[in-house]
Write a structure and sequence with these properties.
heterodimer; A: 242 residues; mainly alpha; 2 strands; flat; B: 230 residues; alpha/beta; four-stranded antiparallel β-sheet; 8 helices; 34% helix; 26% strand
């Protein structure tokens, strides 16, 4: 992973900063303050620009989702009608509401990409463990990171086996049943694999505590980050809460 | 003086599920310190199950398991033995559960309470033994099946076991990796119990051959090309 300014900070302070920023942004109710909140991740991007793909892809995904949400939300928010899109009224309140959640969503995703995107999964797990998050939650997260590819491969493998036996995805009862069997088999295999992984963990002395090779060091800069960001979040909340 | 028994199994019975089909029906096995035993048998004859029973991952319905001279009956008893024994799983994806190679190999030492530096050092040493220098930060899920197998063995070696149980260690390995594995296993001073269908691999590494048939263990017929030198 390319070293960047964010890696200078301790993984725990980066996690806490992300929780703090996300929490504050989630509570903002004013669209102007939400726009102002976007300045913080933008400032972070200016200090440590991530690669274009790293930032563009998640933002594209989330904005497509917001676009779909807008189509289903704006007509149902009552308020002053600005214009009619066919039979559907577009209200001022609806547009403001969508602008608010779009700005908040973009701010949080951009922040996560910049502050957590460069973090190795193992470091993330270790930081969460040191922040005393429940071990089952951490194990779930780490296992997801590790096994998502394996699940995908198993799914692709089974799909291939189905295709090799003449399966064609169609909207028929037979095809839907085959899909059901595929998902069922995938779940069953995952369950069996989970048992085997638990066995492997036992063989290597695991009794429920998550340990990592890395040493985390909390510096003065981390405290400064917490204080600075805490103050910024407090200001955002003062201006943005109703 | 006869070396002490590391694994001693008497009249072991193990059945899976409710269908009553017995996998192990009165297995007797003894492996002494320093011995290198090869175990073969047909598919679904219970070879992997036997290794899991030895590690205490499955508890038998009847019979006794003694490891390092002590009877082992429950999880607590086996936990102590697992600190000295390594098991290489048949499917490496089951064994490698951490996101990166270094975390996976250091997992065992860390959980044995060795401390971060010692665990890291042991992990790097085990990777070097397997010829996997530079793999530390590789993402486990993106390794090839053969690489995963070698990393899985490194996870065992990092714990510095005195006994290794290997379940189909040569599956997915190409010729050079297989040869490396043979050289590594020849050099490590451990007691070995290898389950494999690969007869030449067993010939190269083991000095005693057994076969599991109809739920029981017996001596394997002597193979004509025993002890192949590489």
């Amino acid at each position: 992973m390319k070293p960047c300014m964010m890696t200078f900070f301790d993984a725990r302070s980066r996690m806490l900063a992300t929780f703090m920023f996300s929490g504050a942004v989630a509570l903002i109710q004013d669209v102007r303050i939400a726009a102002l909140a976007c300045a913080l991740p933008l400032l972070s991007i200016a200090c440590a620009p991530p690669s274009f793909a790293r930032i563009a892809r998640p933002l594209l995904h989330i904005n497509v989702l917001f676009l779909l949400t807008a189509l289903m939300t704006i007509p149902f928010v009552p308020g002053e009608t600005l214009w009619m899109a066919g039979p559907i009224p577009v209200t001022r309140e609806g547009l403001l509401f969508m602008a608010l959640i779009t700005l908040k969503g973009n701010a949080v995703v951009a922040w996560c990409v910049v502050w957590l995107g460069s973090m190795e999964p193992a470091t993330l797990g270790h930081a969460l463990s040191r922040l005393r998050l429940p071990t089952p939650f951490i194990r779930l997260l780490m296992s997801t990171i590790r096994y998502i590819d394996v699940l995908q491969e198993e799914y692709a493998c089974m799909r291939m086996a189905m295709r090799a036996r003449g399966f064609k995805p169609q909207l028929t009862r037979l095809s839907l049943r085959a899909h059901g069997l595929l998902v069922g088999a995938l779940l069953l295999r995952s369950l069996e694999r989970a048992d085997r992984v638990a066995d492997a963990m036992k063989c290597r002395g695991h009794h429920g505590v998550y340990a990592a090779t890395e040493t985390l060091v909390w510096r003065a800069a981390d405290t400064a980050l917490m204080i600075g960001l805490g103050a910024a979040c407090a200001l955002l909340l003062l201006g943005g809460m109703p | 003086m006869t070396p002490p028994c590391i694994i001693q199994i008497k009249d072991l019975y193990f059945t899976y599920g409710q269908d009553g089909a017995s996998t192990l029906k009165g297995v007797n096995l003894s492996v002494r310190q320093g011995e290198r035993v090869g175990l073969s048998g047909a598919n679904a004859s219970g070879k992997s199950t036997l290794l899991h029973v030895i590690m205490g991952l499955r508890l038998p319905q009847a019979g006794t398991v003694e490891l390092y001279g002590k009877p082992r009956r429950n999880e607590e008893d086996f936990r102590d033995a697992r600190m000295r024994m390594g098991l290489l799983f048949q499917d490496s994806d089951d064994q490698l559960f951490c996101p990166t190679v270094l975390d996976d190999v250091a997992f065992g030492p860390l959980h044995l309470g060795w401390g971060k530096d010692a665990a890291r050092e042991a992990a790097l040493e085990a990777l070097a033994i397997m010829g996997l220098q530079g793999y530390e930060h590789r993402v486990t899920s993106r390794l090839s099946a053969g690489e995963k197998k070698l990393v899985a063995l490194a996870t065992n070696l990092a714990m510095k076991p005195d006994t290794l149980l290997l379940d189909e260690p040569t599956s997915f390995l190409d010729d050079s990796s297989r040869e490396r594995l043979i050289h590594v296993l020849r050099d490590v001073p451990v007691t070995l119990l290898i389950v494999s269908h690969d007869q030449t691999f067993l010939d190269a590494l083991t000095d005693h051959r057994l076969v599991l048939r109809d739920g029981r263990i017996s001596d394997a017929p002597t193979s004509p090309g025993a002890k192949v030198e590489l």
